[in-house]
Amino acid sequence: SVEERFGLLAELLEKILGRPIAIDESVYRSEKETGHRNRALAYFLKDINGLEGDVDEVLDLYFRQCSILVNCSDLARIGMFLATKGISEAGSPIVSANAVRLVSTFMVTCGMYNGSGEFAIQVGIPAKSGVSGGILGVVPGQYGVATFGPALDRKGNSVVGISMLRRLSEVLDFSIF
After folding, report:
1. Which domains are delineated in the chain?
2. Number of C-beta neighbours around residue 2 at 10 A
3. What gap in Å lies between CA 79 and CA 142, rounded to an integer?
4. What pLDDT sits at residue 88?
């Protein structure tokens, strides 16, 4: 069920963040009421056998995930978790290194929407942006980094966040490329 699947995600995030998570109910309702493009894409994927399960349940789970409340510090902690290949702050593995590799690969290839290629060239780390202006970055084997700036570029990424990460990458030379 959606509740069980979301519960698994919540449990994982609570282990990573060290605190209970919460959902912004108004964001959840808004996403559910206005997510027409997501709905269309989900039905398209279902039609070509690219999506398993009930479309409405998959979308409900997605909209809940989009509504999880996090701050910049939380994003950096998630980045650190990925940088250490799924090892908790206490030193125990929470997910497999292979799962982290897959997530990091998707972050490099599409985490910054249509700006992913340019970001990979300019900054050079796995990253994921959100429409709120947050960016979560991973410097593999070292640390997580996060920024927040609500002004978005035409590709939906934080203008200030990209600028900050570009500068940090230049100064700290943390590009993986």
Report:
1. 1-69 (1.10.1500.10), 72-177 (3.40.710.10)
2. 17
3. 10
4. 87
